[in-house]
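tokens incoming
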């Protein structure tokens, strides 16, 4: 009986340890509990993560990591949610309003991403051109980056872009020019309207945009379920 108890304890400890997020850089400051997150908001209200589905109901969500339709081939998020910091949400709201005037809408592929997901991505695809380095963390982990496209509200379809989401080739680079004119125009429309409201496109992905001042927001490793409890 005692031997069974010892084995059971070892198993439970092993499972708990396996579930703990591996941190590649011990010097990284990562918020991983609600108390610390709430303290960060008290110090700076801009640190609040806003649920875009509530804040901008007209947005179209296509959260790929809540499905297996992504480069990992597996469901990473348990919910299809999109959170961003307060200033990021405010800028996206203005962008959405401007696009709506053209009968267009933003489509959100991804927004805030827990650090644990960044670790998973790197361990699956170890090329930091296309996935963030776990040694520094992702701007998604800071709630200050979004993966987006544009949808034509008349057709309900995404306007034609250079590649699909999560395409890890040079064709996805925002300066790749061997494309049809309409595709270049569509990509430029997205880049221009995002840049006008405080975002900058990432050099290897036409869909990825970092918000100005992203470095001022802390890295986080809270799940969507934890954020909904706050």
């Amino acid at each position: 009986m005692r031997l069974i108890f010892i084995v059971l304890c070892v198993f439970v400890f092993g499972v708990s340890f396996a579930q703990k997020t591996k941190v590649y850089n011990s010097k990284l400051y990562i918020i991983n509990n609600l108390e610390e997150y709430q303290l960060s908001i008290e110090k700076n209200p801009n640190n609040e993560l806003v649920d875009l589905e509530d804040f901008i109901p007209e947005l179209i969500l296509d959260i790929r990591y809540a499905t297996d339709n992504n480069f990992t081939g597996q469901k990473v998020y348990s919910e299809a949610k999109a959170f961003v910091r307060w200033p990021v949400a405010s800028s996206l709201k203005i962008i959405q309003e401007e696009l709506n005037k053209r009968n267009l809408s933003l489509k959100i592929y991804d927004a805030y991403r827990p650090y644990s997901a960044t670790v998973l991505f790197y361990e699956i695809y170890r090329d930091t051109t296309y996935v963030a380095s776990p040694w520094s963390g992702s701007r998604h982990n800071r709630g200050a980056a979004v993966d987006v496209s544009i949808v034509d509200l008349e057709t309900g379809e995404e306007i034609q872009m250079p590649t699909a989401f999560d395409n890890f080739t040079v064709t996805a680079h925002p300066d790749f020019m061997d494309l049809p004119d309409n595709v270049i125009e569509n990509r430029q429309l997205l880049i221009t309207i995002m840049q006008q409201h405080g975002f900058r496109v990432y050099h290897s992905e036409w869909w990825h945009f970092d918000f100005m001042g992203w470095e001022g927001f802390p890295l986080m490793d809270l799940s969507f379920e934890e954020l909904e409890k706050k």
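note: The first strand starts at residue 30 and ends at 31.
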